[in-house]
Every structure is written in C-alpha cells, then in structure tokens.
Model the fold of this input.
Amino acid sequence: MNQRTKRERGKRISRPDAVEKILESCPDIFADIINVLIYHGKSVVNPANLTDYPSAAMYKAAEGYINQKDRDLAMWGDAPFSVRVIYGLENQTKVSQVAPVRVMGYDYASYERTVRQLKAKNKLENNEADYALELHPGQLLHPVITLVLYFGLKPWDGPRSLHELIEVPDELKQFVPNYTLNLTEIAFLPPETINQFTSDFKIIAQWFRAQRLGSTHELLKSPKPWVHVEELLEFFSVFAGNLYFQEFKSHLITQATKGESVNMRSLFDMIFEEAHEKGLAEGHAEGLAEGHAEGLAEGRAEGHAEGRAEGHAEARYEIFNQLITEGNFTKEQSIAILNFTPEELEGFQAWRARSCSSHSQN
Done:
C-alpha cells in the first residue's frame, strides 16, 4: 500500500450538509448571503448584529402532540425597517420533490414559537389575552424569511411552489394558499451577482459555477484570499472529492496564521512543490547510483544531471496525472494549468504507458 493510499484511508470526510452549515454559520458569510440574495448587494444585515436563532422549533400538531422541526440554520438579523427578521438557510445538494412543504413547515414552526413566547410573556405579566384571541391586538410576529440554497450542478427541476406539488383544479386555487420557495441555484448565479459577495461565499459561488461550466482552472487566477481557511478546505475536500484539501490543511492554516495570503493557487503551489521535491530526490538518488556504478566523475555528473532532469519531468507527469484523475480537471484544463508543451504531453503518455505496464506485471 503506498503512502497516499494510507493517508486517504485515514481521513474522515464530513457530510455535505455539515460543511455547508459550518461555513454559513460564520456571521460574515451568513450576512453576505442575506445581503446579496435578498437586498441585492446592499449592506443591510450587519454581521455584528446577528444572533443565533434556534434551528429546532417545537410546535403543536393537530392531534395535540408536540412535534419538532429542525431547519439547517437560522439567525436574528437586521432589516431596512424598524423590525427584526428571522432569516433561515436551507441547503440542498439534490433536488427535492417536497421542498415547498418542508420549508413551509420550518417557517410555520418559527411563527408558532413566537406565538408561544408572546403568550408566555403575557402570562408572566398577568396580562393574558382572551382564550379565543390568544394574543392582544397589536402584538405582531417577526417576519420569517427562508432561503433555499441549491448546490447541484444540474438545474433545479423540482417544485418551486406548493401549487406545483398538489393536484388542485383552477377554480379552487384561490382557496388553496400557495407557498413559494425562495430558491437560489448557486452554480447558475450570473457573474454580476457572484461579484456582489464580499465574504468567502464568493469563492464557493465561483467554484460551483466553474464546476458547472468545466472551467475550474480559471479559479487559479482568482486573487481573493481565503478568510475561513480551515472551513473552506473542509468544504472543498467534500464537494471536490479531492483529498489534497485535507492533506495540506495544516500547512495552509499555518500559512494563514502567519499572515500570509491563502487562495486556490496556494494549494496547487504546494501540490507542485511536493511532487517536484519528490522527483528531484528520486532523480538525485538514481543519478548517484549510476555514477558510482560507472566509477567515473563524468558518469556521476551525467547521472546527476540526467537523474535531476528525469525526476523533474516525472514530477510534472505525476501532477498532470493527479489533476486529471483526482482533481476533477479535463486534460485540456490540466495542460493550461501546468503550461504543458506538446513534447511534455508525449513524454507523459509514454510515462503513463510504462506505469500501467509496470502495475499490470505486479
């Protein structure tokens, strides 16, 4: 078993919903999402003014039982009015056929929670409302807004409203209240919307759009530094299916704590450096062995030079192969990333053929 396989087996990969919630729970990212997707890029919600709102809400079912609804994430936040708003985020990595019903349940549970709190407050103050009224006139609820963030690479083709999910004749629609999803397809956001993000969520949106368009190599040109380095590395290790994000986590976190900028290019620089040093070391060892065997100074020098050259070439071949097989890049994208020459591409094909032949013999 090679060293990489050992490392891969030792890694514990998080679930998509877990890494999504960890990132979005950062106040700057949560506020950024709300400001762009609701307030069109205006700085309405201040991260400093956000407070956690219970993601688990209890409500009383029609049968009289107390049930619980667990939404992904919710916070109290500002609004450009004189009220506070309960903002909720729901993450979807796949299309759901019942999303309108589920989100409607989350919002209902949040409203029901506020009703119960107001009734409890009235009781504590010996100011209970009439049994039928339940609340005093003028006791209003806080608005609840839920955004559904869809991270799929294919367009959402599920219901976006309650009426799409139920069979209701046209003449009855006015009597059956509709419920519409506030759904955003992250991979399909236009560049002008993505550029409104100022937090690390901009990197996430850029990555999903690039994945959909098959242009992930373009991300290497993005100069935006990562703020939440550990959270982003965990996110990408899950969604990219690439353990490099885990493998170099400690190095990149150390780099960030030193005040050095970390971005997508930083990761690829580390990948290249590791493979390059490995190739140089192997080439150096092979050159020494050949030089000693010949017993000539000239042979040693030539062995060193050839070994180093071969080691450097093999390092680039290995990176090229890893980009294609593990990094979710196409051959053309990998050529662009490494600036591969036609001669190197020929050498890579020969190197890969030798490697496959060697593995088959073993």
The CA atoms of residues 324 and 331 lie 6 Å apart. DSSP finds 14 helices and seven strands in the chain. The mean pLDDT is 79. Strands lie at 51-52, 56-60, 66-70, 73-77, 85-92, 144-150, 182-185.
